[in-house]
Write a structure and sequence with these properties.
By secondary structure, this protein is α+β, with helices and mostly antiparallel strands. It has one domain. Helix content is 17%, strand content 26%. The protein has a 4-stranded antiparallel beta sheet with strand order 1-4-2-3. The protein starts with a strand and ends in a 12-residue tail after the last strand.
Length: 88
Amino acid sequence: MSRKFLPTNADFGSLNVIPHDAIFMVRCLACGEMREVNRLFLEEKAGHTAQLKVIEKRLKCSCGQKAAKLMAGYYGVEHPRLGSKDRS
């Protein structure tokens, strides 16, 4: 079975309330590309109490668009019968 990024369903407001073992992924809403982002990089550039919506507005994809979705989650394996419930 292959591992897949499974975003959490929680609506986090700022970086400081997200668990430190969570993985951050950014998805471009224009082209669909997904990349992993280092938490320390986000905290260094925006501050550890920055709102996720503010950070999303500042992110720019390699395709040139400023349309990003910042997600926190974990790598895991989908349940064979349930699958993953992606609310993106």
